[in-house]
Amino acid sequence: MIDRFLEMASVMWRNRVRTALTSLSVAWGIFMLVLLLGFGKGLENNVVHEFRDDATNSIWLYPGKTTRPYDGYPVGRRLMFTNRDYDALSQGIEGIDHITGRFYPNDSLVRWKDREATFEVRATHPDHRFLENTIVARGRFLNDRDLDEKRKVAVLGREVVRQVFRDVDPIGEWISVSGVMFQVVGVFEDTGGTDEESMVYLPITTAQAAYAGGERVNRIMFTVGDASVDRTETMAEQTLQMLARRHHFDPQDRRAMRVRNNVEQFAQVQQIFTLIGGFVWIVGLGTVAAGIVGVSNIMLVSVKERTSEIGLRKALGATPTSIVSMILMEALLLTGVSGYGGLVAGVLALEAVRRFVPENDYLRDPDVDLSVALAATALLVVAGAVAGLVPALQAASVNPIEALRNE
Amino acid sequence: MIRLSKINKYYQVGGRPLHVLKDLDLEVATGDLVAIMGSSGSGKSTLLNILGILDAYDEGEYWLGDTLVKGLSERKAANYRNRFLGFVFQSFHLLPFKNAVENVALPLYYQGVSRARRNALALDYLDRVGLKDWAEHLPNEMSGGQKQRVAVARALVSQPRLILADEPTGALDSKTSAEIMELLKDVNRDGITVVIVTHESDVAAECNRTVRLVDGRFEARA
User: Fold this and answer.
1) What is the reported pTM?
2) A319 vs B78: CB contact, 8 Å cut-off?
3) Average pLDDT over residues A324-350
4) Which of B184, B115, B117, B116 is nearest to B156 (CA)?
5) Cross-chain Cβ contact B75/A314 below 8 Å
6) What contacts A284, CB < 8 A, 6 or more positions away?
7) What pLDDT is recorded for position B221?
8) Which of A175, A275, A332, A343 is the most exposed place for a label (fewest CB within 10 A)?
9) Mutating which of A8, A305, A316 best tests the B interface, going by the most B Cβ atoms within 10 A?
10) Measured between alpha carbons, how far is A202 from A153 in angstroms, rounded to an integer?
11) How many whole angstroms separate alpha carbon B33 and alpha carbon B189?
């Protein structure tokens, strides 16, 4: 085996320029394949990351304006949720895991001592943190007693703390939110990033009372556990029917009530990336195929050039099998080594992209996983065999008489 | 050693069979040194290829020792060439990227002899042809005579029954030719049968006997 390897290495070293150039074409093919796969993965990671802000297993309800007359009511009616909708949904829809309403007070000036800044204020139920993937960093989130007793407590995003409190520990401090005093009970982080951490959370009941909200709720959203896409579609439809009954609008009126099913959307995005993944493989394999044709071509030339050598080997007792395996092994070695080189180069390039390209909205952590690397390696072995096959058969058919005829 | 009886060989030329070898009978005893002469087109190359198991014949029988060489698979033919025959060519046919000792060792590679052992054996045979000091040299660093000596060593290394030499002196000057002939006669004196195809009568004169091929038949001895 080592013997055979040395035999091949000497042949390839003899044609080192050609060997190098041919290797380059294969290495390039694999390099591009890895790069494409990595970037595809990066795109996918980015989109998945975008989804990480909100729970992917959630359904969001946005009331709008009616565009169809229904049940004696005119068009152009603005719909609004109330606390009773929240109660009705949480009791009436089967399969809800966590549910929350959200009420937006009009004004949102946050002041502490002499510092003030404007932030988005969301008045919610305690379950809200499961919908926005809110992570409580210090203190606690809102709880049921806050709502029951209409406590004046607030949970601040990290960015709010950074801007208003700077180095001071905000827990226990009193802040003014649009002129109403609240005590800070917690600080949160959010997987959605800085924007999502520039928020103030208040108990919905307290905020409704404090900001003259009455019973109003701007939107309602809930999670569905690990329900299937089909199941969530049923749930979304039930929800729509229930709300249509309660608010007297046509369930077909899409403008009246928007139902956003994240489960369905996430499934669609995943489908798109499966498609993109397939496409990337096709393009990548095409590039590799070009490299393989190159190898096959160059091996054919090499066999032609070495006709007299092959003839001599046959005269000295080389069997057709040994000639075929010699050429095949050469092709395998060529594609194997250069392809592996391309693989390593591709992985290094992705690593460089990850390290040196700043965070952006398109790519996130471009990467290839082990199974891809293994698939590429298997591909190389097959490719090498394919590339070597035609030249090898050509070599085996060399006629020693012709080959050794005196020049 | 060699017994040919009623060997016929045809080539298809333009759809018509060309009768190249016609009812050839030949016996070469073990340890003999025979020259085959003939002008170009006489069929001597074809005969050499048949003797060298590089080509098949259409009719007759070819016995090499006690082995009938007929209708062999490529694999079997390769095996026989490797074990029974040693070749010496006019243009040497050394592999240019291998040094002398590696060239000599090549037939042993196809016998599956280990690298160390075949290089040692090859060195012995290089010594025998007087080129031990040139073992590490590449063919293009050697003279024509030296290259042919390497080729003879390569033909000998597998301890064949028969050496087939195709115009072994064709590319050499007369002084070097004489040296190579001396070497082949040396080899022959050790008991190895040698068949030389040549068109040079002074080469033929060095052999024990000469057969002449004319138009695919052996000419009656003059």
Assistant:
1) 0.65
2) yes
3) 87
4) B184
5) no
6) A29, A32, A33, A34, A36, A37
7) 57
8) A275
9) A316
10) 6
11) 9
A320 inside 8 A of chain B by CB: yes
Structure tokens at B204: 């033929």
Residue A48 has pLDDT above 70, yes or no: yes
Which DSSP symbol is given to B55?
Answer: S
Is residue A10 within 8 angstroms of chain B, CB to CB? yes
Mean pLDDT by 10 residues, chain B (222 residues): 92 87 92 91 87 91 91 89 92 90 93 92 94 94 94 94 92 92 93 92 91 87 50
- 3-class secondary structure, A123: strand
| B131 DSSP 8-state letter | -
Q: Does residue A1 sit at the B interface (CB-CB below 8 Å)?
A: no
Tokens of B77: 């033919």
Q: Determine the Cα–Cα distance for residues B55 and B46; give it in Å rounded to an integer.
A: 8
Could A3 and B95 be called an inter-chain contact, meaning their C-beta atoms sit closer than 8 Å? Answer: no
Residues B61/B6, Cβ–Cβ less than 8 Å: yes
Residues of chain A with C-beta less than 8 angstroms from the C-beta of B45? 401, 405
CA dihedral of B199, B202, B203, B207, whole degrees rounded to 10: 120
pLDDT digits (tens, 9 = 90+) for A367-406: 777 787 778 778 878 888 888 888 888 888 888 877 877 5
Side chain identity, residue A268: Q
Residue type, B195: V
